Amino acid sequence: MPLALLALAVGAFGIGTTEFVIMGVLPQVAGDFGVSIPTAGRLVTGYALGVVFGAPLLTVAGTRTSRKKMLMLLMGLFIAGNALSAAAPGFGVMMTGRVVASLAHGAFFGIGSVVAAALVAPRKKASAISLMFTGLTVANIVGVPGGTYIGQVFGWRATFALVAALGVVALLGVARLVPDTGRPPASQSVRTEFAAFKNAQVWLAMAMTVLGYGGVFAAITYISPMMTEVAGYSEAAVTWLLVLFGIGMFLGNLLGGKFADRALMPLLFASLGALSLTLLVFTATAHDKVFAAITLTLIGALGFATVPPLQKRVLDQASAAPTLASAANIGAFNLGNALAAWLGGLVIAGGLGYTSPNPVGALLSGAALLLALLAARLDKRTRAARTPAASAAARVPAAR
Predict the structure, then answer these.
(1) CA 22 to CA 222: how far, in whole Å?
(2) Least packed by Cβ within 10 Å: which of 170, 243, 378, 391?
(3) Are 102 and 55 in contact (CB under 8 A)?
(4) Which positions make up the signal peptide (predicted)?
């Protein structure tokens, strides 16, 4: 494994911790600022929307900058945002800090995916991408539970101060280990990058990302009150439940990376279908401690089994200009987060209970499965149209 992949994983670890740790300390943040749980859930939505807009904007802004330098600048922005969150005197400033930190998220993963894929042979691209995202999944095994525990013992501000420190470590790792390949090729101009979006399959892949990954966040955004108020766990037990979710993410990500290089679309069909069913079942299993823990682990595994294949599909469909499309797909993951957190807050605020976001998530993931089937059908139609044309060309005698 190239050491540069380790550096990218370190950055992913820091970003993953700040993205997900808010779920573990959501009740503390809400109580400190005197807002409701659904209102505090807007911190998830705000972060996600920051990723959606920051991913393409910062990627375009860095088109003529070396990828290593851009990764370092993005980590600096990430550090500043988390430091602001830690010191926030009010909810509005806290939201600002979350948005500032989120602006770096999409561009870091987007540029990092391109760098990771370029470091290995073509047949190992999905595996390389999954290794970078391993930092994100390990964050959910170590960083998020650890941050939740620190937040419960020392206060949530200490959690975000620790996340800022993680950003410093990630910045040093990128500076030390990621090779400086200079500026991107001149052929990869802003216009060229935007041209990738003329391909309908790129849009379909990103729509699958929004809906499929959004299904996971519909349930996970409100996992802390769901597990304490419905399943009957203590507040301290949420830390260990997040560990289980993180372990599921870790295993799902590795398996997704391995099988996406062999059978990308079949993997998407299986994982999205199983994810939709598991989210629906979670509405019932959330009332039992043991089954709730098992289901939560499965949701993590199935949700992250979709990440490497979805990211690789976007890179494949936008192969001529992958950087912006890759970053935009990271934004799509977070657009799904924002949509799911908002919808989940709506059904909870409507009095439907803390398990009500689960069927919402099931519908979102089921819709992603339908889009995957549509994309595969379009692929088949395109191949069928090309085959007769190629055969006809082969029958034309060569000019003498």
Answers:
(1) 10
(2) 391
(3) no
(4) none
- Residue 239 in contact with residue 149, Cβ under 8 Å? yes
Q: CA–CA separation, 111 vs 298, rounded Å? A: 29
Question: Taking each helix axis from N to C terminus, what angle separates 91-118 and 307-317, rounded to the nearest 10 degrees?
Answer: 60
Q: Find tokens 């970003």 and name the residue.
A: 15
Taking a C-beta distance cutoff of 8 angstroms, is the pair 40, 94 a contact? no
Cα–Cα distance measured from residue 391 to residue 349, given in angstroms and rounded to the nearest whole number? 60
- Per run of 10 residues, the mean pLDDT along the chain (length 400 residues) is 78 86 85 86 83 78 76 91 93 93 84 76 72 78 84 91 88 82 56 70 86 86 87 84 86 82 84 93 93 93 86 74 72 80 86 90 92 87 66 50
Q: Which fold has domain 3-178+189-384?
A: Growth Hormone; Chain: A; (1.20.1250)
Q: What letter would DSSP give residue 302? A: H
Structural contact between residues 137 and 85, judged by C-beta atoms closer than 8 angstroms: no
> For residues 367 and 211, what is the distance between their CA atoms, to the nearest angstrom?
7
Question: How many angstroms separate the CA atoms of 40 and 282, rounded?
Answer: 23
Contact 278, 298 (CB under 8 A): yes
